[in-house]
Write a structure and sequence with these properties.
The chain has about 750 residues and is of the alpha+beta class. The protein has 20 helices and 33 strands. Strands 12, 13, 14, 15, 16, 17, 18, 19 and 21 form a 9-stranded antiparallel sheet that branches. Strands 6-5-8-3-10-11 form a 6-stranded antiparallel sheet, with no helix packed on it. A 4-stranded antiparallel sheet has the order 2-9-4-7. Helix 13 runs parallel beside helix 15.
């Protein structure tokens, strides 16, 4: 078998088969490598380049410059940061002639076919290097069109965040693009000043001279009599004497001032003001409400803070890249009567209704129109959160940056593993970390809906918001409901309702009701995947448990019977990975992890099904058939092969962990006709994992990367290689360890009771 490390480096060498010690190291290594880092907030100009619903940046320059002469050229530029070497597939769709340079190297020059064929898409591989990487697009105007669409393949999964080049825009998100010019220009230094370039770059970052003469609120919103807006800053009080802080300045109309959650001043008339307030040492939230009065020539205020003769600094309430010289956030304009709750202001996980009488929130399905978010005193510039913790690629390596805060299906398994391991070890720090990972996503859900409507494609929670497949919601949604027992987070249930509606009412089905993937125009068009039993049924089980809606549990049970009809391979008693409806046949390739998902999910359904449920006897029989088939194919090492019935394929760790998990649960819950063989198989699998797949630092090896599908075993063996610390395997290792430990405890307790009963009767 493949050797990932020498014997002394194995977890078995250090701890033997001690599940609790192994779980401790696995969980602590993962948490240590994935710190609780929040989203990155950046300045973003809405008048710049936006993404479409596929995640491609739409550089349609024909719309931006409708009067541009034929053969004029425009440029677009961006920076991409690399934490490490990684490969990324990008897509280009041409409106006209395009040249794409990456790190000053010509990667692509469009052909006439690319330029005139509707929706023609070119896929290109780029190698992102550590540090700054430059993107440079040269686009020529022709009668056919002007510009292109550009972005990563599968943009909601492989996120491509681009940052603005040039020193003046440092830290801002988004592209810059130039006004058309008559002749080609050389690429300037994108890390230098934009003034060194001969091109006029857009969007504009500074107000015009006439706008600069206006107050901040007037130039941001215009004159809007009867409306009001809020401004939020942080007062940094460095005075240690306890003296009061003096707030002074000028107002163009009525203002109200809060320090923290306390109203400290109400100024009714325009003019100068001065008030003294009590402020604690350090940072204090300062909020100002300003009204625009009818007939007023302006609205807004100027405010300074001081203690004695010393001025105090006003700072942004949250670090925003690209806005370090700013000190105020602004939200508005609000109609009279549209008053956000004070408790909902001075935070970044809310959007605010601006219309009086508007009811509901985006979380419950109401349109995001008539809502707003915090912005800066710059043209069309909003604050925008970005998920930048992990720059996803086709390959993961040890030391990849943190996954914290990402909604993604492999991380759903990881979160579930952390929850179960933490509970088993009575480690509330571990369960709290897992629950807070979920909360970091769900608390920004309403914002994410607004972000998509505002900018075309969300900057966070991409898979949840662009909900099109079971992969996007089922796994992490299941982990979300599992963590509901740890924290009654109010955002969980509305999101669960949306996912349940998608699965039960809107998901594609065959005529018999079986879930499948339409994926029109894609490689997976008209297919059914064994993986989707995991992407759906554990969520449905937990949704039924939390809400009491038994029809969700009935649907989960029904799907197993349907999938068996299409994918079961009776000669081996295992499952084909995929059924391809285009060819009206299963691939007959039993991929290990696809089978692991099947068994894993079946145990979740069986645990929840009532004893008298109509589907239960058939599913118990199915469970026994599958386990018999899997047990027969276990290797001498305790692991299973990547393609289960092809012994020449490599031994794979994630499916091994799932089979151990399923066997152990079958023993503990009494589902086996003869459990003894499966006790041994589960223990052998666990020993194989700690000997061959988990090293003594808690790194997980031998886990297959994410899969597509094929009709040959060679694809799974040669194209899908193993990845260290892949999230498809870390969580399931913890789940396997907890279940084997629970199985052994169950058997020990049962034996002890039997012995005690025998002694008593004697």
């Amino acid at each position: 078998m493949t050797t990932y490390f020498s014997e002394p480096q194995s977890m078995y060498y250090r701890f033997g088969e001690d599940q609790e010690q192994v779980l401790k190291v696995l969980a602590e290594r993962y948490i240590g490598a994935n710190a609780q880092a929040d989203f990155v907030y950046r300045a973003f100009q809405q008048s710049g380049i936006l993404q479409n619903d596929k995640g491609l940046y739409d550089l349609n320059l024909g719309k931006r410059f409708p009067d541009a002469p034929k053969d004029h050229i425009s440029y677009a530029a961006a920076l991409v940061w690399g934490d490490e070497n990684r490969n990324l597939d990008v897509l280009v769709r041409c409106y006209g002639p395009v040249r794409f340079y990456f790190n000053n190297e010509l990667i692509y020059r469009s052909t006439v076919i690319d330029e005139i064929t509707p929706d023609a898409t070119v896929k290109l591989g780029i190698d992102i290097e550590p540090g700054w990487n430059t993107v440079w697009l040269e686009m020529k105007n022709t009668p056919a069109g002007f510009g292109c669409q550009f972005g990563s393949d599968e943009g909601k999964v492989r996120i491509l965040n681009v940052l603005a080049p040039f020193q003046e825009r440092s830290g801002q998100a988004g592209w810059v693009f130039s006004e058309p010019v008559t002749s080609a220009q050389a690429q300037p230094n994108l890390l230098a000043s934009q003034g060194e370039s001969n091109l006029k770059w857009l969007p504009e970052t500074q107000w015009s001279a006439s706008e600069q003469n206006k107050s901040a609120l007037e130039r941001i919103y215009g004159l809007l009599p009867g409306r009001h807006a809020y401004a939020w800053t942080n007062l940094n009080n460095r005075d240690t004497s306890g003296r009061p802080v003096r707030l002074s300045g000028q107002s163009s109309g009525p203002i109200q001032i809060w320090l923290g959650d306390k109203s400290v001043a109400t100024i009714k008339n325009a003019g100068s003001f001065e008030v003294e307030v009590e402020a604690t040492f350090g940072r204090n939230d300062l909020l100002v409400r300003s009204e625009c009065q009818a007939g007023a020539g302006s609205w807004g205020f100027d405010l300074k803070a001081s203690v004695g003769k010393e001025s105090l600094q006003l700072e942004l309430p949250q670090r925003v890249q690209g806005a370090l010289e700013e000190c105020w956030f602004y939200a508005g304009p609000f109609e009279s009567g549209a008053e956000p709750e004070l408790a909902d202001l001075m935070r970044l996980d809310r959007v605010y209704r601006t219309n009086a009488g508007q009811q509901g929130t985006g979380t419950s399905g109401v349109s995001q129109a008539g809502r707003t978010y915090w912005r800066l005193d710059r043209p069309d510039t909003f604050i925008r959160p970005y998920y930048e913790n992990a720059m996803l690629s086709n390959k993961w390596t040890v030391g990849s940056v943190t996954n914290y805060g990402r909604w993604d299906y492999p991380l759903g398994v990881t979160v579930y593993g952390l929850l179960q391991a933490g509970r088993y070890m009575q480690r509330t720090d571990i369960t709290r970390y897992a629950a807070e990972h979920v909360q970091s996503c769900t608390q920004m859900y309403e914002y994410s809906l607004w972000d998509r409507e505002q900018y075309g494609f969300p900057s966070i929670n991409q898979q949840l918001i662009m909900l099109k497949m079971l992969d996007n919601c089922g796994s992490f949604g299941s982990a979300m409901l599992e963590s509901y027992t740890e924290c009654k987070e109010p955002t969980f249930l509305p999101i669960a309702e949306r996912i349940a509606d998608f699965m039960l009412n809107r998901l594609e089905r065959q005529t018999d009701g079986a879930f499948y993937r339409t994926c029109a125009g894609e490689y997976a068009e008209n297919t059914m995947w064994a993986d989707d039993l995991y992407m759906s049924t554990p969520f449905l089980v937990r949704y039924a448990r939390v809400t009491g809606k038994s029809e969700a549990l009935d649907e989960a049970a029904k799907q197993f019977s349907l999938y068996r009809k299409y994918l079961f391979m009776p000669e081996y008693k295992i499952m084909s990975h995929v059924y391809d409806f285009k060819y009206k046949q299963a691939t007959q390739i039993p991929w290990g992890r696809g089978n692991g998902w099947t068994l894993f999910s079946l145990t979740e359904v069986l645990e929840a099904l009532p004893e008298d449920h109509a589907e239960r006897p058939a599913l118990i029989e199915f469970f026994n058939e599958l386990c018999e088939g899997y047990a027969a194919l276990q290797s001498e090492s305790g692991l299973w092969h990547q393609v289960l019935n092809h012994s020449e394929t490599y031994l794979e760790a994630s499916c091994t962990a799932m089979f151990a998990y399923g066997f152990a649960r079958g023993v503990r819950f009494g589902w086996f006709k003869d459990p003894s063989a499966y006790v041994t198989a589960a223990q052998r699998a666990w020993k194989g994992l700690v000997s061959n797949a988990i090293d003594r630092q808690g790194n997980v090896h031998g886990v297959c990367s994410g899969s597509r599908y094929a009709f040959t075993a060679e694809y799974y063996d040669q194209d899908l290689r193993t990845v260290t610390n892949d999230n498809h395997g870390i969580g399931i290792m913890m789940l396997a360890g907890t279940e084997v430990a629970k199985m052994e405890k169950h058997l020990s307790e049962r034996t002890a009771k039997s012995t005690a009963s025998t002694v008593h009767s004697g």
